[in-house]
Design a protein that fits this description.
With 235 residues, the chain is mostly helical. It has helices at 3-22, 26-54, 57-89, 106-116, 120-140, 150-154, 158-178, 182-200, 210-234.
Length: 235
Amino acid sequence: MRLSALGVVAVNLLPVAGVLMLGWPAGVLLMLYWCENVVIGVINILKMAISGAASGLAGIATCLFIIPFFIVHYGLFCYGHGTFVVMIGHVGQPGPEPRANGIPDLVAIVETLVRNEPGFAWSLAAIVAWRLWGLVADWLLKGGARETNPMAQMFEPYGRIVILHVTLIAGMGLVMALGQPVWALLVLAIIKTLFDLGLSGDMGKFRMTEAQRARTDEGMRALDRWLAERFQTRR
């Protein structure tokens, strides 16, 4: 088994232990998976910035626009998803009071879980460490920045967040209806682990078609030439 697959299994065994040994309910399990989505978004911002720097002036200029756009778009998607998890999973109740507009304070809820839920902090730390390791060992050192561009990289996390978490949230509804039996929570954890194993083999990721990729690459080259000409003119 490859090191990446072993890492996926090891990281996903921690929430399994949380369910079996620490009595985690469904809401806490899905809140941890939601936190992983946030971590993946932050890692993707780093990838976009690095690939932009590797693409020259055009890449840097592109990042100035698409990174803020990604933060807003992906952030709103994650916030809506997290709010839904909190509402149906009763996470943080009793816990942090919602904001004045009635929307749950997801940051405060996560902080409360980190402080008070046994094993949650260690599981989250393992996810952060594993994702950073993947950024360095499986992407940066293998030349990932030269094989993509910021525009193409921006789309990478969406396949995961849509496919996996629609499945998990649907499964959570069934788990809640059954009274949250341990076996049903383990099924959710196994589904998530198998999905991550597929992603470790480049399955399930959003990929541009060759034609789309060629258009974005040509657009980046055209922008790079235009910027270079403007800088030379000013000199």
